[in-house]
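Possible race condition, two jobs.
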Amino acid sequence: MITSAHAVGPALYEKLPYHAIESFSAVSLVASTPLVLLTHTSLPVRSLKELVALAKARPGQLNYASSSIGAPPHLAAELFKRSARINMVHVPYKGSGPAFADLIGGQLELMFAALPGSLPYIRAGKLRPIALTSAKRSQAVPDLPTIAELGFPGYEVTNWYGVLGPSGVDRKIIERLNAEIAVVLQMRDVAETIVRVGAEPVSSTPQEFEAYLRSEVAKWTKLITEAGIRAE
């Protein structure tokens, strides 16, 4: 089982003991969860348009947190900065817990974070959700719009999960595994559990998953190279 970090590794690290695509056999995507753009409740914005306007009026003055350098929240913010043509300052943390604590405490203005871990703070009114990073809205927060629908078409960042096998596995085995995963994802209790924690069940063919993985590697390699991001 891998996460979207698998597609980031080739660009983030100079040497890996494997090839992100050729060393494996793609089996299936399993689930995907959006990130959510959050702000401190004192920040005078209630929409993405207002946030972009504030960032342009105060270039380099808004600080955004991330759980670590090169993690999806960091990359989501960097991609948004380029899409909106704004300048914000990155403040990396060692984990999402300290980042949430400082954002709630008002030491930071905003952050991108995985939706499941953000839901308790949103529901308690401790943080203000502005928009989701997925292409479509989430069943967990259906009233929250996506960045793509708010004027940035094509913007999409998700934490996704998938299954890989070793390279060279017999195709019949891959197809059987893929079929069984699809059956499990259609089970009502499984699907409801995935949705309840803020994710979405996502099945695919092995071919679709391999193509998606290649596109993700290319996408993040381009962004990480252009932004000069390096793991610490």
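Job #2 (started ~2 s after job #1):
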Amino acid sequence: MRRFFRRVIAAAVACGFGAGVLAPAGALAQPPRAVPIAKGLEHPWAVAFLPHGRFLVTERAGRMRIVEADGRIGAPVAGVPAVAAGGQGGLLDVITDSDFAANRTLYFCFSEPGAGGNSTALARARLSPDLSRLEDVKVIFSQKPKVASRLHFGCRIVEAPGGLLFLTLGDRFQRMRDAQKLDNHIGKIVRVTKDGAPAPGNPFAGRAGALPEIWSYGHRNSQGAALGPDGKLWMHEHGPQGGDEVNVALAGRNYGWPVITYGENYGGGRIGEGITAQAGMEQPVRYWVPSIAPSGMSFLTSDRYGPAFKGNLFVGSLKFGYLARMEFANGKIGREHKLLDNGERVRDVRQGPDGLLYVLTDMPQGSLLRLMPD
């Protein structure tokens, strides 16, 4: 009888039924469960974490709301400046200061109306003790020039060690050629102080004809950025039709748009020279064809989901409505897995103070979700 069962087990393994026992750790990881915290948010764009389990959520139409730990959605926070809401524009990213517990300071970016159209702006404010309003609101940086466009604002904020701020800036669609010029902020990542001044040591400081805030250039439209385990700034950006990219944004580097791309014009046809590589321009760490329309980005540093998830990169897909989990192998992005594959546009993903992942779905009745280990 024992020999019979050994033969049955051996046959099952040979047919693949027992392959999970020998699969690498990534294949053994169980997908987490999405637990709704709050529903009914209007096109939410970003989530930040507040003390006592509360959340701060932006809605693209120009509202900022407090979501209580039990999911209750508060009235709009007063004091948000006027935004150019429409198309892809509106109230976009928000982060809390690394010393928020002491200074109650936060940073947010939005499409700022003004002479000539609009552009991405970065503001600093203090959240009132009763959470009802923003105080001492000040725009500390505005993308130049302003453009009459409702597209490609970029607008992800990352605080780096030492208190400097990175801000991603889109190419505004019809101004894509300006992404290769250093006399403007179109299609750039900038690095500034918390007062909005060019950060000391920026790569183009002192260079004639170059704006001193610029960190890197040749970007299209980045809606995801995060510090990686290597301490470097990682970001992703939308390609045109195909060619979404993950990049490591290094000081002074040119990321090629629109000279090189793995995408093509909407409806077909090459862009520019139709090439994917050129000397002096960086290659992406990863690219997607077809496009997934990435938004939101987070590295998981906790062990809440087990060792297979720790260190993975998580990116939302607007186009296909899932959360991508990407493993690393030998320092490079390896296999990709789909989570939350329910068709809802994933706009933001963040690791919370509790080590769990939180997701926003960008829908007319959007949700804030907590991913619970299964």
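The chain has one domain: 38-372.
Logs attached separately.
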